[in-house]
Amino acid sequence: MDKKDKAKAYWRNNIKYVLILLGIWFVVSYGAGILFRDQLNQIKIGGFKLGFWFAQQGSMYVFVVLIFVYVKLMNKLDKKYGYDE
Amino acid sequence: MMNKLLLITEIDVQTWTYILVGITFTLYIGIAIWSRAGSTKEFYVAGGGVSPLANGMATAADWMSAASFISMAGIISFAGYDGAVYLMGWTGGYVLLALLLAPYLRKFGKFTVPDFIGDRYYSKTARIVAVFCALLVSFTYVAGQMRGVGIVFSRFLEVDINTGVIIGMLIVLFYAVLGGMKGITYTQVAQYCVLIFAFMVPAIFISIQMTGNPIPQLGFGATLSDGSGTYLLDKLDGLSTQLGFAEYTEGSKSTIDVFAITLALMVGTAGLPHVIVRFFTVKRVKDARKSAGIALLLIVILYTTAPAVAAFARTNMIETVSNQPFEEVPVWFKKWETTGLIAFEDKNNDGLISYVADVSKNELTVDRDIMVLANPEIAKLPNWVIALVAAGGLAAALSTAAGLLLVISSSVSHDLIKKIIKPSISEKGELVAARLSAVGAVCVAGYFGINPPGFVAAVVALAFGLAAASFFPAIILGVFYKRMNKEGAVAGMVVGIISMLLYMMKYKLGWFDEVLPNKNEWWFGISPEGFGTIAMLLNFMVAIVVMKFTKAPPIEVQEIVDTIRIPSGANKALEH
């Protein structure tokens, strides 16, 4: 693989990760916390209505996890393509 | 031993406040002296060698302002579900930062955001537009911080607000001017520790009192410890509807507005220059990604606690004062009444405090800031905890103010003087210019803190809309769309920022009409706070359309884009 193709393949892989992770980002916050909260509020976990919980707690936990997953994935990808330092 | 213990419990709040504020301020000044900046690289980006953990802590303190520390829990306790716009909006932006901005800006590796815009769009005009946006966003934001410093001082140390602002100015001046980004980074690390400790201690105490669970995030969804077996949130929903308010867990904003505000805040967070520059301070691209994760984790500790505090405080407050005889109110009520933060007017002369949603019958006005400031007193916590809140509020306000002042001073000394007005300036000369512009910026910020123009409070929340409407699209397109050229980017930023300003002037400040236009006139039912989302979309659309009709960027610029997409070699980038 020459240098240009390598950079292209790396970038394509990166974009794929970003799109998947941002998909989850959108679903937990805008989906569960805003658009579908009325439906989710029918479900109760402990004292929390589920939609309310996603809006004021859950989405934030997921955000943190998403960034660390991206860090892990990209560190691996950097190694695979020799961009690691 | 017994005597000493007695002594500690007897020290009053005022003395405790002096002790704690004194210790923390000495610490900040000590750090500033230890970490003086000797070069422009140290002044702008702390030398570029900050560890991911230190940068994560500094970013968290930089980010969490007086508004996060003092006002947010209070806002949520009055807004209920609607408060989620701030919680999700001010944290979700970090996902965008980590995935879409921070790694590439770090790889690009210059000193400021206008640096990136100016180089990527090979244009002085683009750079000047970016400098203008950076100054506009940072000044609106910093004025609020200085005011916050003044307010904390005046409430806890009983000096007047102006004296408080001046003390705050002197402290910030000292470490921002001396240490630049290097001094700011390490004081922010200390400030994070102070502010998170100060926020969590009362929260944990109150959570135990109300629900028996020491973790506020869990206590939030637990049953009350009064033996009734009722869930806290059910109780609060019940109390709210009884008094005529909307159910706490339902809120009252429209779904489209909640959606738009959340998005505007997220995108705005990712576009705020004082947050972005923090990622220029780490060594490698992978450190930039990691420190974004650490920063968000540290921020989320406070942000998931705040809504719990909000629910505890609101329940507590309603139960303590609603329908109670005014003669029997606790001491804290009287004390905060003198500050004007809480007021009671016995409209029906029955001697009872009637707190209801109906404005004509309501007899109690409560400033939302009281929910954090007076919470420890309402919950009868020891004096040192109350004083701790003052030290924490000051740490939050000072750390954010310092970060903003650095953006302002580097915009002037680096982007305007070095890059546009006098490129021949020496490194030493630029460093002097950077320090002088920091002094100038502190004075302007202090002036606004002492004489806040009426619109500052209204505009601070809109700084996010401005950042969303200007920087975010320009940076994203610069990284992800190689064909994007200067014509497109400049047109997009100009249209974005102008539409945001106009909407704000019309619907928030009411400058174009006799009276402020009401909600029904908002476009698509979107409030001025949420309009950043629309302005951002306008920016994207205009940029892409204009680009289609103008010529592609030069080959060298397209090559820059190729290089920033590859993480290795970030340190070399900083050397040029």
Describe the protein.
Chain A has one domain (3-79). In chain A, 80% of the residues lie in helices and 5% in strands. Chain A has helices at residues 3-35, 37-40, 50-80; strands at 44-45, 48-49. Chain A has a two-stranded antiparallel ribbon. In chain A, a hairpin with a 2-residue loop joins β1 (44-45) and β2 (48-49). The radius of gyration of chain A is 18 Å and the shape is elongated. Chain A starts with a helix and ends in a 5-residue tail after the last helix. Chain B is mostly helical and 576 residues long. Chain B has a single domain, classed as Sodium/glucose cotransporter. Chain B is built from 25 helices and two strands. The mean pLDDT of chain B is 87. Chain A binds chain B through residues 7, 10-11, 14, 18, 21-22, 25, 29-30, 33-35, 37, 41, 45-49, 52-53, 55-57, 59-61, 63-64, 66-68, 70-71, 74-75, 78, 82-85, and chain B through 76, 81, 83-84, 87-88, 91-92, 94-95, 98-100, 103, 217, 220-223, 231-234, 249, 255, 258-259, 262-263, 284, 286, 289-290, 292-293, 296-297, 300, 303-304, 307, 562, 565-570.
Share of helix among residues of chain A? over 70%
CATH topology of chain B, anyone?
Answer: Sodium/glucose cotransporter
**CATH homologous superfamily (4th level) name of chain B:** Sodium/glucose cotransporter
Rounded to the nearest angstrom, the radius of gyration of chain B is 24 Å
Q: In angstroms, what separates the terminal alpha carbons of chain B?
A: 63 Å
Structural class of chain B: mainly alpha
Task: Note the total helix count of chain A.
Answer: 3
Number of strands of chain B: 2
Using CB atoms under 8 Å apart, which protein chain pair has the greatest interface? A-B, 42 and 48 residues
Mean pLDDT of chain A: 94
Structural class by secondary-structure content of chain A? mainly alpha
Q: Largest sheet of chain B at a glance? A: 2 strands, antiparallel
**Helix-strand sequence of chain A:** HHEEH
CATH architecture of chain B: Up-down Bundle
**Roughly what is the average pLDDT of chain B, rounded to an integer?**
87
First-to-last CA distance of chain A: 20 Å
Global Rg of chain A: 18 Å
Series of secondary-structure elements of chain B, N-terminal to C-terminal: HHHHHHHHHHHHHHHEEHHHHHHHHHH
